[in-house]
Amino acid sequence: MVNGVQPFLIELDRWWIEVRDGNHTCRTIFRRHYTYRPYRDGRDPALFVGPEEKLVLLTASAKALFVWRKLWRKLLIFERVTEVIA
């Protein structure tokens, strides 16, 4: 780590491009991932990350995808449980 920053995030603008959930190229990459399971009824939703706050990054070469999602509901439940325990 360099100054507390992960090395692959130092030059974020050069390697990673922020895109929106539902980007066609990102969906194509996601469908190749081992966790992808198509719906049995044939639906093909445009969004693949899910609800709440999210960040989708795509490499400039469009060969890799990074997705981060923060679930506020779970965070609030954890805070409430922590208050009860304290």
Write structural notes for this entry.
By secondary structure, this protein is α+β, with helices and mostly antiparallel strands. Helix content is 30%, strand content 20%. The protein is built from 3 helices and 3 strands. It has a 3-stranded antiparallel sheet. The termini are far apart.
Which key features would you list for this structure?
86 residues; 3 strands; 3 helices; single chain; 3-stranded antiparallel sheet; 20% strand; alpha+beta
Strand order of the largest sheet: 1-2-3
Our Rg estimate from Cα atoms comes to 17 Å
Question: What gap, in angstroms, lies between the N and C termini?
Answer: 34 Å
| Total number of helices | 3
Helicity range: 25-40%
**Number of separate strands:** 3
Low-confidence stretches: 80-86
pLDDT averaged residue by residue: 76
Shape: globular
**Largest sheet descriptor:** 3 strands, antiparallel
> H/E element string?
HEHEEH
